[in-house]
Design brief:
- The chain has 132 residues and is mainly beta.
- It has one domain: 3-Layer(aba) Sandwich (Protein Transport Mog1p, Chain A), CATH 3.40.1000.
- A seven-stranded antiparallel beta sheet has the order 3-4-5-9-8-7-6, covered by helices on one side. Strands 1-2-10 form a three-stranded antiparallel beta sheet.
- The two termini are 18 Å apart.
- The mean pLDDT is 91.
Amino acid sequence: MVVPAGWRLLTLDNTVSFAVPSDAQSQNVKPIDSIFDILRGEGFEVIYDYGRSGEDLDAYQDEPQYTRRDREVDGRPGYEISFSPDQKQWGVVRILQVRNGARTLTIRISCIDDISCQFADELFASVVFTSE
């Protein structure tokens, strides 16, 4: 995997890695039953969750500008959704979800607008699984 310039690599449970912008600062959230954190940077927020069950992304179908597409992630089937939430804080939300054996990786990127959310393509493309 090539980490984009100025980004850093995160590895979860020695089974999955992905890159995040260097200004994405951990909010030090205490997870309950999965590997979970919230990272915040200028104009964006990244939330990742890696555990037995993933978030029900079908719950967002009624959000404005909702789209869903299948997306292969390191040889595993997954999908990506995007929408413009009714919340005023974020203008765009993009979520990638992929199963890895018995676990699910969900990465949610919320941004102030489409331009500030363009990095989501690189982040999602950087996901690599090492094993299950």
